[in-house]
Amino acid sequence: MDLPLIWAVLIATAVMLYVLLDGMDLGVGILTGLSKCDEERNMMTATIEPVWDGNETWLVLGGGGLFAAFPLAYAVIMPAFYLPILVMLAALIFRGVAFEFRHKAVREPTRKFWNGAFFGGSLAAALSQGFVLGGFVKGIAVDGRSFAGGAFDWLSPFSILVAVSVAIGYTLLGACWLVLKTEGELYEKARRWARLALIGVALAFAAVSLAMLSVDPDVTARWGFSMTEIDFATLGPLAPIPLAGMLLTLWLFRDLSMASGPGAAPDWRPYLLAAGIFLSGYLGLAVSLFPFLVPFQFTLWDAAAHDSALGLLLVGAAVMLPIILIYTAYVYSLFWGKVKPGDGYHG
Amino acid sequence: MEFDALFLSRLQFAFVIAFHILFPAFTIGLAAFLAVCEGLWLRTRRTVFKRLYLHWVKIFALAFAMGVVSGVVMSYQFGTNWSVFSDKTGSVLGPLLGYEVLTAFFLEATFLGVMLFGWNKVGEKLHFAATCAVAIGTTISAFWILSANSWMQTPQGFAIDADTGNFYATDWMAVIFNPSFPSRYVHMMLAAFITTAAVIMAAGAWQVIRGRVTEPTKWQMRMAAGTLTLLMPLQIWAGHWSGEVAHHYQPAKVAALEGWCETRDVQPTVLVAWPNPEAPCGLSGIEIPGTSTFLFKPGAELHGISHFAETERPPIWMTFWSFRLMVGAGLGLLAIGLWGVFLWARDRIDKPGLFHWLAVPGGTLGFVAVITGWIVAEVGRQPYTVYGYLRTADSVAPVSAASVATSLLVFMVVYAIIFTAGVVYMARIATRGFDDDPEEPPAKARRAPGSPLGSVDDPARAPDDIVPAE
Predict the structure, then answer these.
(1) Is the whole-model pTM more than 0.80?
(2) Do A345 and B447 form a contact (C-beta atoms < 8 A)?
(3) Which of A4, A39, B231, B465 could serve as a FRET partner for B32 with CA atoms 20 to 30 Å apart?
């Protein structure tokens, strides 16, 4: 049994779930910055309050899982992104406590501060995750078994592009979530935000895809492109991934453009379609980088932990992950349906 | 002392872990307290327990959020600042921490949502189950963390890969149930319950001082006093057990925390000590001779610091004084518990007095003991991260001192802000007492449907619930 490969797939799945779930609530956080009144902001946070903590746990599983299953990759990647990870953690701290604190502040300036912390923390967390992704794809300088680059290696025009794309993408997820969870005026706003974010996502993902092809000749070759020609035999089997992304984008745009009311698309569909767009981008990334876990330095087999560790972990994951998914789905279903004014905060 | 990446990384780890442990120490105990209150409410239907639950769950929400966000930081510290350690120990420690995420974090995080927002969305039995899930999750989480940390203190069940120099497990049961794990897990769990009891006592005492005595105030003080009185003697025993294990596996740590210099068969108890360049080991102290015969079996040779090479010694002063602070705080907590039970027996626990003025600052003693206890454990096992096998100096990541200085500064500022705000908000709820909590929920429609206060159908108000403030 190829334990490292199984674990690579499991961790990739955990990161994907993180992106779809916490990306959604970071997106809602970013959108609170567009809202002018507290009542509306409270409605927005009420849609995610019962679930955000669970969502963020996928990030802990991503980080912890990398440490457990691929310690070498963890040991190289974390120091390489020291500063963006610092910013991400500080941002997640602020927005995490702001969920509670913004309801507890009594004076106007402190209330404003925690509202700002919620918005700013969500945005900064999204951007710094984008910087990590961008820097990761560009590759990491390695000497022996250690990171050997500088503190700002992650910063490049490409990583800036990726950072902005991730933030816009999360905003799309957040807006689509609000379409599902709200009604009335906020619902109409959310549909407008989702349309704008979708246009941004279409442009950003196209730009990132093209830029990806220039990151490394290996990546370009993998998709069947070279300076002079296109190898359709290589591109052919892979083409459905970007094509699906494009089709889902068009479908989502159609859904969001329809007038609300009878005959309109069901409210759960935009989030699902947006998730599909993310999935196509994620698969495209996987095709470009596989089997590198530290791009262009260590493959997932180089970086894997000892088989004794992977085996023990697999037993735990095989038992626990289905249970976790079941009770997570259960809690989501418990809080299913549109939120009402005054819903949510507990005290 | 050089302000290089190693020193700054150690300082940063000490800072973020000390900050973090405050919240789990409190929430482990508080989750158990909430489960007990909700269980008592369902069983006895006395509203006092429901009011206690609905009151303390608000504080729990705040403390838990702070524990979560400072805990996410911890899961990245190993990689960002201790990457060589991560590479070397990942195949042993990684699965333990992975199991913590899989068996505990998701359980806590997911059911917290039900606990906080599901009061009237689910039946009361299911809500109670959610509270229990969170409480059990916190103890499972502590299980894995203590197991991982204890393996670093008393490593066994592993081999070292000849090519990479990395640790890997040969016997997982030996890794998980390593020699120092049972005693340290018991010691930490008791510490968490005691810490929470002290906070609950302090909040009650403050309400008494301010004349805001209601039935829940009295009950929370009784429960806290009973908990302290029952658990503190157990804790002293657990601490001693933990010391015996350390004596066997980490004699240098015991020598440092006891302040023993020479190796002898019978050692004194050093009450206080101060630096003295003239004296052997550079310290003089006030001692009670011959006391080690009560603690350690006679015949065993008790090593002093001078037995160990300079490069094998932990920092003595920090270990020595932290240990004394921990013991002092523990004795203080025992006194609060006994005194509280005495007043309860005389039915005077709700009459303001000296006890209440002492119990209020006494609410911090549990935290003092937890922090200083962990300093003894972690500073006392220096200069190693994996005791006897991997030195702290050889564990650090190849990051620049400037980066670490930046991150340390950022963490200090961020934590100062959220700590201040969090403590203020928690203290505001804890001290205002129960007089502004509804004794009977008014019309359902006026309450937020998702809130725990919403649409709770009370049976007729129990007579024990109406106690005029004196």
Answers:
(1) yes
(2) no
(3) B465
- Cis peptide, bond prior to residue A291, ω within 30 of zero: yes
Contact yes or no for B449 and A321 at CB 8 A: no
The 10 Å Cβ neighbour count of residue B34 is: 26
Contact B354, B336 (CB under 8 A): no
Q: For A65-100, how does the pLDDT look when each residue is reduced to its tens digit (9 = 90+)?
A: 888 888 888 888 888 898 899 899 889 888 988 888
**CA–CA min distance B87, chain A (Å):** 5
Q: pLDDT for A298-314, tens place per residue?
A: 888 888 888 888 888 88
In this structure, chain A runs to a length of 347
A54·B110 Cβ contact <8 A = yes
Inform me whether the C-beta atom of residue B421 falls under 8 Å from chain A C-beta atoms. Answer: yes
Query: Which residues of chain A are within 8 Å of residue B69 when distances are taken between CB atoms?
Result: 92-93, 96-97
In Å, how far is A201's CA from the nearest CA of chain B?
29
ipTM: 0.80
Q: Does the beta-carbon distance from A65 to B101 stay under 8 Å? A: yes
Structure tokens at A289: 């980088």
Which whole number is the average pLDDT over B422-432?
A: 84
Quote the CA–CA distance of A179 and A174 in Å, as a whole number.
Answer: 9
Which residues touch A209 (CB under 8 Å, ≥6 apart)?
Answer: A242, A284
